[in-house]
């Protein structure tokens, strides 16, 4: 039962290995539902640590560029730097008090020609791990070299690096950056705008037109009664109901409405035709 659950995951994992082996790494990592965009980490980065190797000290100096090849250092002998096409170069420098620094080894941990990156991610803590491959070192007893970079999700960090270990074949590097935060689907800003999409139509102001009509009608009626009452008061000294303009007309309005309704009802009511039964008088 456990094997059945693992088989789909293993298939997807090795499928990714096959694709990544033949496809140039563009600093974008895509899993089935999770994506990482590492393009913000492009460019050369330098990380170092100093180890106590009494009676001297050894400084591990790491130069790396995740997205492109490292540039050749000017003024540095060719044998003191990694060959062209390297993406990660580890230089071990022996430091002893009172003596000049001595470059003990220059190790190409990751090379574009042999990169073959493999990926894995974790959601607790959120991170993505990339394993880069490089040349064999040293020439006398060659061992395949590689760089294992774990980029932890830290929205507030500004590229904090830390060399965890180097066992002679694999260098483990921890990197805290915003790029280590996963996202689903296309990254915001990369989605293509939808084409042939009509702008939203603004509904016509039918309701507002009716509102204006009734407002004007109300103001007209109000002005009619107000001015009419003022005219009756100033001209005839009227008071009470006598202030109503055309009072006699408004008194007759209920009766006129009654007559209109009665007339309409008589027209709507079906007419009855008289039927004559029995004998007709001669």
TrEMBL record:
It is found in: Cytoplasmic vesicle membrane; Golgi apparatus membrane; Mitochondrion membrane; Preautophagosomal structure membrane. This is Autophagy-related protein 27. Residues 25-183 form the MRH domain. GO terms for biological process: autophagy; protein transport. Residues 184-203 are annotated as: Disordered. The keyword Protein transport applies. It comes from the Eukaryota. InterPro entries: Autophagy-rel_prot_27, Man6P_isomerase_rcpt-bd_dom_sf, MRH_dom. Keywords: Autophagy, Cytoplasmic vesicle, Disulfide bond, Golgi apparatus, Membrane, Mitochondrion, Protein transport, Signal, Transmembrane, Transmembrane helix, Transport. Its main location: membrane. It is a single-pass type I membrane protein; Single-pass membrane protein. Pfam families: ATG27. It comes from Psilocybe cf. subviscida. The chain crosses the membrane at residues 210-231. Residues 184-201 have a biased composition (Basic and acidic residues). Residues 1-21 form the signal peptide. Belongs to the ATG27 family. One of its GO terms (cellular component) is cytoplasmic vesicle membrane.
């Amino acid at each position: 039962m456990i094997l059945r659950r693992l088989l789909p995951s293993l298939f997807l994992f090795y499928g990714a290995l096959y694709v990544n082996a033949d496809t140039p790494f563009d600093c974008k990592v895509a899993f089935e539902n999770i994506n990482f965009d590492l393009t913000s980490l492009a460019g050369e980065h330098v990380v170092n640590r100093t180890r106590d190797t009494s009676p001297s000290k050894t400084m591990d100096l790491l130069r790396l560029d995740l997205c492109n090849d490292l540039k050749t250092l000017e003024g540095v002998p060719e044998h003191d730097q990694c060959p062209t096409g390297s993406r990660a170069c580890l230089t071990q420098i022996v430091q002893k008090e009172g003596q000049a620094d001595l470059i003990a080894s220059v190790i190409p941990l990751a090379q574009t020609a042999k990169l073959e990156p493999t990926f894995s991610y974790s959601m607790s803590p959120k991170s993505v791990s990339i394993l880069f491959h490089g040349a064999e070192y040293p020439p006398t007893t060659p061992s395949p070299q590689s760089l294992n970079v774990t980029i932890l999700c830290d929205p507030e960090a500004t590229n904090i690096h830390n060399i965890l270990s180097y066992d002679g074949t694999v260098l483990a590097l921890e990197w805290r950056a915003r790029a280590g935060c996963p996202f689903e689907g296309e990254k915001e800003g990369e989605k293509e705008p939808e084409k042939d999409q009509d702008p939203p139509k603004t509904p016509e102001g039918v309701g507002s037109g009716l509102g204006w009509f009734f407002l004007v009608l109300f103001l007209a009626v109000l002005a009619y009664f107000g001015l009419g009452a003022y005219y009756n008061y100033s001209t005839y000294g009227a008071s009470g109901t006598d202030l109503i303009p055309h009072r006699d007309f408004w008194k007759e309005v209920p009766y006129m409405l009654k007559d209109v309704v009665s007339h309409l009802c008589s027209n709507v009511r079906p007419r009855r035709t008289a039927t004559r039964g029995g004998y007709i008088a001669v």
